[in-house]
Records
---
Amino acid sequence: MSTAITQGDAPVAAASPPPPKRRAVRASSVLVYLSPVAMFVVLTLTTPGVLSTTGVMSLLVLASVLGLAAVGQTWAVMIGGIDLSIPATIGMANVLVTTLYAEGWGFGRIVLLVAVVSLAIGTANGLLSSLFGLHPLVVTLGMASLVTGSVLVATDGNTGGDVPGFVTDAVSPVGSLWGIGVPAAVVLWLLTLAVVLAVERRTVFGRRLYALGSNERAARLALVRPVMIRVVVYSVGALCASAAGLLLAGFSGGASVSIGDPYLFSTITAVVVGGTSLLGGAGTYARTVAGVLVTTMFTTLLVGLEIGPNMQQVMLGIAILLLITVYGRDRHVAQRL
Amino acid sequence: MSATVATPLLQTVARKVPYFVPALVAVGVMLLLTASESETFLDGGWKLVLVYASPLVLLAMAQAPVVLSGGGGLDLSVGPTAGLVSVVIAAVLIPRDLSVAWLVIVAAILTGAAAGAVNATLVTLVRIPPIIATLATYLVFAGLATQVLGAPTGFLPEWMSWFTSVDGVLPNVLYVILGVGLVWLLLTRTAYWRNLLMVGSNDRAAYTAGVNVTAVRFLAYLLTGVMAGVAGLVLTAVLGGADSTVGPTYTLQAIAAVALGGLSLAGGRGGLFGAAVGAVLLFLIQNYLTLTEASSFELRMAYGVVLIVAIVANGAWDRKRKAR
């Protein structure tokens, strides 16, 4: 009997792909996590003003907004999708917070409302991208248009308003929370980072996330419910994007539905620079954090060198290409047979 | 045979009609709606609608080859490429008095081809995933275009108004679209078309069967670039000048149009005709919402709903096609 089983198993073992090249994988992750450090060194050498508490904190505040916005993009990419509705969600939160606060709503009520709307957006994204195997690219694109339009209709286009003082303090580089000299925005980001990484690495949900991303059919056979996972992924993403929208309100006081627009490509850039594969099933938010830090510092560097916004864009594009050429190349079709 | 009889009628129909038929039916409905809303539409107004729709139609057609080539094939840079072409025309050629028709047309196509070749090299030779590679070139092309041409300009040579003229039986821009379609039609008579679909549906099988996957995909990105170049030329004429910020806004619309037209974003199914029909549908929806005098806010909201509904309907139809 036992020999029969061994014989039966042998072809399966032979057909399974060879173990991935450990060394290559490790080298690329080391590179990803070292790049923010290297970038920081370059930045301090070229822009001396950065090397101060205020300088570092203002970098971190900028990074925390992008970091929060990129949570949803990272998870969406990890399950093989993409989320183009993040900018609209940021704009929604931004406008609702400022408009309703100016109308005298309590801050708690506003946050609750924004959270409910975010969950609705995420749930709709998750359900629709599960239906009929629709591509999340188009689903979230439509959702973005719907959300932005609804916010404009609801507010009649009057998107100005007011923000509570503590939101402004939260994003001020000299602000501090609980007397530890770190702005609340950064604290919020670090807490989110801890929770997201814990969920990815220590929970059943995290394992299902990777399972769904690497092979939906296999995941389904292993009793992973794709619809559930997608709904949670897009909802968490929308919640974090809303938090980013709230923080953005602190920067300017004024509000705009299009305030999130730059975050469409910058969240994807952060994910990609972090080396998370767009094919899904691999990667982690920790990599995205590295990507967020690198892109934030890179932009600061270019601003410091007095390079205009257009050439900044060009340089960012070239930097993405160079980085991905180093560690994100696809395998040739002959090596995937 | 009994299995065929047992199949629901809808399913049998779904399997027999080509992929683009649902979009075509929707276009028919939208045409009726538009005609009932606008009195001048049938009386020549449709020509103007077509002129305004033409950049999107051409860009959706441009998007088709790379989407068909599979492997996550997508060109986010089509919009910025078109923008770059219009900047080359308005800020490089015209100020130097190089505005002869043939020269501008050749320059537009070459600029598009160059952009396509850059994408093709990055995706097929350097093997950077398509979304990343074309996102990067999106940033580069859009940045360069704005750097070269900061403020919009509106000075164009006389002959370019040919593109927007609606004096003939058919609007002239239709000949451009048909011309691109004809070139594509000739291409579908070659082995390239078959190889493209094969690579798109299963690149490993295609490679094993001896198809040069790299070459097929390279050519797909090159074709996309060339068509984006033509789209840039028409965009310049339709805008009556060059504005570096307009091109990029077309990218996501072109992708949505391709999906509406029944092409599979996973590759291997569809064609240029479907992409064009999808683009016309998308434009007619926007146009109709404008006609009903909805506010721009309501318009944006309704647009999102319609896009989602259309995509869901398309997906449901597709499921019927594939069901056995």
---
Amino acid sequence: MQLKISHWLFLCLLVAIFLVPAQVRLVHAQTTQQTPVPQQTPVTEDQINVIARELWCPLCSGVRLDACELKACDQMRQEIGLKLAAGDDLEAIKTYFVAQYGPQVLGEPPRAGFNWLAWILPFVVLLAGALFLVMRGRKLLFVKPGPTALPTVGPTVASNQDEPYVRRLEEELKRYD
Amino acid sequence: MIFDVGYLILVTALLLAVFGVIAGFWGGRQRHPSLVDSSFHAVYAVAALVLLAASILWYGLLTDKFQVNYVWNHSEKALPTFYKFSALWGGQAGSLLFWTLILSVYSVIVATMFRRKQLGQMPFVNAVLLITSGFFLTLLVFAENPFKQSGFLPPDGQGLNPLLQNYWMVIHPVMLYTGYVGLAVPFAFAMGALFSKNLGNQWVRTVRRWTLIPWVFLGAGILMGSQWAYMELGWGGYWAWDPVENASFLPWLTATAFLHSIIIQERRGILKVWNVALIACTYFLVILGTFTTRSGIIESVHSFARSSVGIYFLVFLSISIITFLWLLFDRLPLLRSENEIDSVSSRESAFLVNNWLFTGLAFSTLWGTFFPMFSEILTGRRISVNAPWFNKVNGPLFLLLLLMMGVGPLLGWRRTSAEVMRKQFTWPVLGAVLFAGIFAYFSPRLYPTIGLSVCVLVIGTIIQEFVRGVIARRAVTNENPVAALFSLTRRNGQRYGGYIVHLAIVMIGVAVIGNTFYQSTTNVNLRKDQSVSLAGYTLTFTGLESEHTSNRTEFSAHVAVFGPKGQSLGTVSPGRNIYDKTPDQPTSEVGLRMSPGDDIYVVLNGWQDDGSSATFTIFINPLTVWMWIGGIVLVLGTLICIWPNPARKEERMPAQAGALADTAA
Amino acid sequence: MTDNLSLTGDIPTVGPDENQTVAPANRRVTIWRLIIIGLIIVFVGFLVVGLERTNKSDWRASGVAPDFTFTTFDGKTIHLADLKGKGVVLNFWASWCEPCRDEAKLLEQAWQREKGNNIVFLGLDYLDQEHAAQAYLKEFGITYASGPDIQSAAARQYGITGVPETFFIGPDGTVKGYLLKQLTSEAELTGYIDAIRPQ
């Protein structure tokens, strides 16, 4: 019973870890598709900034293009405006800037080649850590309780609804009282 | 002349630090009383000399001694006195001196408090702290002399970096350094314990408190830095996962992990090796972070100019890691666990998962910070790792951490049965599910719905803990609820202060979710008296004014804000400061109206000189104010944690009179 | 271990079974220690390499001008290695750079003068935007070969820290001189060009 609960807990955590980024990508992809592509209407600053928020200034480190005040960034935003007017979408514009300035305008490593490591390693390390914990946890699961162990708190002991809780709290407070 | 003396003082301080290190180790090992005393005296003397050196530099800054290169580079005649004072930490050499000064102050406090206590380990503690001071003094003496003179007197200085001429930028580094540098203290205690083999519970208590103090300063410093970024940088956000920001965040993460796992050690006597390793990692991350910001190895907006100090840092870092590992491996038998974990669903396991997540986060943050360097060395291509990567990789981990914050405290020490679990979780989970349903109906977005529901879950568990604690307390003492709440918090500050800190973290989490997912923005050019609408608010540009102060011209636009029903909500005044010395580097002053619901955040981008029109970027940032409220609550909660427990004092009383009196009541 | 334990306040908690460690467990511990130490060495090694790189660029050690290829705005492909035997003036510029504007005229005039003397002028456009760059070339009437430095490939090899920067490459393919700031006078420029003039 104990073993199952513990395994479920860990399984849930692990599934969550891998699902959540997948969800982010999904949401991300949706917003991408929703970006309106104006054909003939003049491009507004706000439309440009929607794109610029996805790009990073290649001259500065860690400044988003829509917030960058360099003249170079201003010109990049104008370039986005021209591309939008020509009917390009976010992906096309991103591809263009990557070709011009390199992947550093993306603000994240491209998911290709060596740079996959950037994405994978944190999760590999986390998984390894989790595996280590689960294995050790199992090994230690039925080890004799320590010399100071108290009887296990279980439902059979609990006659009053809150009694185990009160006892636990008192046990903790007693250390100071 | 006096500046030559300043340099000599630094040299003397370095020599004394070296002497103190030798005295500490030698005296600690041989238990030689006069050498042990010498180590204390060295701590005091080094601190006095460093303070003197800093005072001389302050004197130079305040009296415009531009023949000193540092003063010339970081000050000017017209600089307001306040900023002349803060220019001490505005540049490389000065901030290294400031670092050393804060470390010296910490060392003196520790030496004074433990002058008669824990004498077995104190000489080693002194020695380790002096090694760190000595390292920074080495930098000051050999690589970055703050008193270097140019041999002639320039008429005026270059001026302080305009970005640093801001109120927040004056106190934020002080807070941050106080936290950052202070983390050397628990490391020194850990090393002292290892050296002297005093690895009992006393060590744990001392280190816990001495970690909490720098930890709260570091947390407050990071939040103040965010506040500065939010108010000054004008991009509507507060945290960019910049390498320098990460450098301050990394030790915070490992220190937080330590603060949790030390609780298990205190209660159950397990994880001793792990805890020592965590606190050492925290210290190494502090040194690594300082290295990152000082050497120019990683590009960042906040970096100091490139300099030669990098190699010193690497040598020091390598030597200290090797020494630590050698010592740790040697003392492993002394760090054996007294108990073992007997069930995976009990609270210990929750703490383990907490540590797993915190170290995982620290690893991924470290990895992301240095990955551009790895990638460039190995592939030759330059990439950047900014917010998008961190949000995708760290975001889910933070969410899990938030979830664990709700789950962990509800699990009992040792086994928790299914029945007890059900009782513990029913109300918070119901509350969270109910909230998720309602929220998703109004705003059907997956990620914020999950995030905010988890926040509700955590708040639910915290309230439940307080309510049950009060009920339990009243059952024993018959106090009224308020008195019960008060005495509960006071008697078990560690636990309930911890819950308040958790509450603060939830507030910050809520702010992050609001700002990330519900921000709206527009970029407009407004003629005078023209309006724009955004997210229900209407903003009208009413005029522009300018004023020349000592070293800059301040331009500010006035924008009247009206609510959804047309009611006036006052005026915001976004501005720009143009500095006389650096006119091409104008700084931005955001016009801000904060409210619990959302912030109206206006940036002035440009204007017609006659004030007839101006360009603005306007952001509506929902819930962002909770980040700063959370910061205040964080400090309060930590204060409750550190506040001396009334019962602790009674422990020292004879015959447990206090305990008897309490049972009688 | 000469430490005197009896004098200390706390008695260290030495496990009773300290001497019972078995050989396989010992080996596993050793492996773990080696892994930890190895990882730290690798990390510090990377830091050392990274630090080296920030402090100097490759060519400054050897003096050989790094080779590069670029395509000019009018579609011609230029390879530095093909220009051996000629003196090359390599100027990094950008349309958003104010000092570049000040030196543009100077460069074009020098190009007109030196065209016939086996001197080649190359303009590499650093992190620039196509339309703005075209307008810039038109504005200053620049006629020497100029094109975008795609993905800053050349800029990084030359380790430039900003624009404008000008490198003077001799007929033998080595860097004879460089200017990491704006050109100020014709005399200055001529001085540098004299150093790379083919004999």
